[in-house]
From TrEMBL:
<keyword id="KW-1003">Cell membrane</keyword>
<protein>
    <recommendedName>
        <fullName>Permease IIC component</fullName>
    </recommendedName>
</protein>
<feature type="transmembrane region" description="Helical">
    <location>
        <begin position="100"/>
        <end position="120"/>
    </location>
</feature>
<keyword id="KW-0812">Transmembrane</keyword>
<comment type="function">
    <text>The phosphoenolpyruvate-dependent sugar phosphotransferase system (PTS), a major carbohydrate active -transport system, catalyzes the phosphorylation of incoming sugar substrates concomitant with their translocation across the cell membrane.</text>
</comment>
<dbReference type="InterPro" id="IPR003352">
    <property type="entry name" value="PTS_EIIC"/>
</dbReference>
<feature type="transmembrane region" description="Helical">
    <location>
        <begin position="140"/>
        <end position="162"/>
    </location>
</feature>
<keyword id="KW-0472">Membrane</keyword>
<feature type="transmembrane region" description="Helical">
    <location>
        <begin position="292"/>
        <end position="311"/>
    </location>
</feature>
<feature type="transmembrane region" description="Helical">
    <location>
        <begin position="66"/>
        <end position="88"/>
    </location>
</feature>
<feature type="transmembrane region" description="Helical">
    <location>
        <begin position="29"/>
        <end position="54"/>
    </location>
</feature>
<dbReference type="Pfam" id="PF02378">
    <property type="entry name" value="PTS_EIIC"/>
</dbReference>
<feature type="transmembrane region" description="Helical">
    <location>
        <begin position="224"/>
        <end position="246"/>
    </location>
</feature>
<feature type="domain" description="PTS EIIC type-3">
    <location>
        <begin position="6"/>
        <end position="417"/>
    </location>
</feature>
<feature type="transmembrane region" description="Helical">
    <location>
        <begin position="400"/>
        <end position="418"/>
    </location>
</feature>
<dbReference type="InterPro" id="IPR051088">
    <property type="entry name" value="PTS_Sugar-EIIC/EIIB"/>
</dbReference>
<keyword id="KW-0762">Sugar transport</keyword>
Amino acid sequence: MENSKFGEKFTQIAVKLGNQIHLRTLRDAFATIMPLYILAGLAVLLNNTVFTWIFKGATLVSVQYWGTLITNATLNISGLLIAAMIGYHLAQNRRFDNPLAAVLVSVSSLIVMMPNTVSVTPDGAKKAVDVSSVLTFTNLGTGSMFAGIIVALLATELFIRVSSYKRLQVNLGENVPPAVGKSFNVLIPIIIVVSVFAVASALLNNIAGMNLINLITTAIQEPLRHIGTGLWGAIILYSLGNMLWLFGIHQSVIYSSILEPLLIINITQNIAAYNNGQAIPNIINVSQVASFGLIGGSGSTLCLLLATFLVGRNSVTRSVGKLAIAPGIFNINEPVIFGYPIVYNLSMAVPFILVPALGIFISYVATAIGWMSPCVVMVPWTTPIGLSAFLATAGDWRAVVVQLVVFVLGVLIYMPFVKINDNVLKAQAKSDADEAAVNA
């Protein structure tokens, strides 16, 4: 009874967390922008591997210009893009009737917080010079992603609140085009919100001699990212997410809302560093976690399926395995989660949480000691085993070997629990048969 009450209470808390509007907005925004990050990873992969195999000299430089343009249009404006998407999705989640206006406010508020003078190094020069009235990729790209998140959330919330006051709405009547009417309705709220952020930016510059991008990056983004995406922070958060599946709650409540945004920031930094020929800064990132902790889906259940085929004797679980193997290859494992099942199945709890954590740990150690390259390409989460590790590391075959080692260990860990689950199911079937006989 106590366990049931605990499970019910835990479920309620997790559901509330997953439905929290700002976390849900983060999840929606990053899901929307994901194709551009995958495109950026593809461009960097082609620029730095495939193209270098085919082209040389001036021809290589000319061909790589394509990848540079793609990087500029995706990775190098990622802070601006995430601000726009957060403004849109938060307005939608708040059921605000003009989400595009929220996009305008979010983007403008982020730009207004950026410095007016920046230090840049001209091509061929050794010393940096100060330049005014320019926006740099440094401030628009991965370095401003966390600032974009915070500014967009604050600006959109303030904009929606101010827009709710009827006295601040300019109503032109019913005889004007709808787009014009909507624009004038939010005219004064937009002026107020952007002006508030401009005042804050001016005060930071004149009093402290700094800007919000640097302040947020230094004081908030980097400490939080290092804690959340350190080895143990990532393992704990990811394991908590997988634990939610045991209660029938999608692990995205924790993973997509809390951990994944930080992991995406890490992979974007890796992509940028790899593209520029610099040292790769982050071992833990979204591609590393997905490739080594998501083999077959949450809980690395492709390992469970193979273990079931090897030692499983229950006809039901083997039938589920046959149905689930095809989608499982592409990391889609709902048939396993609900059909095997994993949900409320204590027999599967330990390996379901342990195997992904082990995959993250082994791949981290292998990268740290130089047995494989770090992940520098963002691959789709549906990429099959083997191919995912190869692409994520820009073509390092050693990563495939490490991934296969993780897979084999995962199978071995799942095997005794498959046998335990078979015995539990057999005992339950016998109990049901005895009860039916008594009631007959």
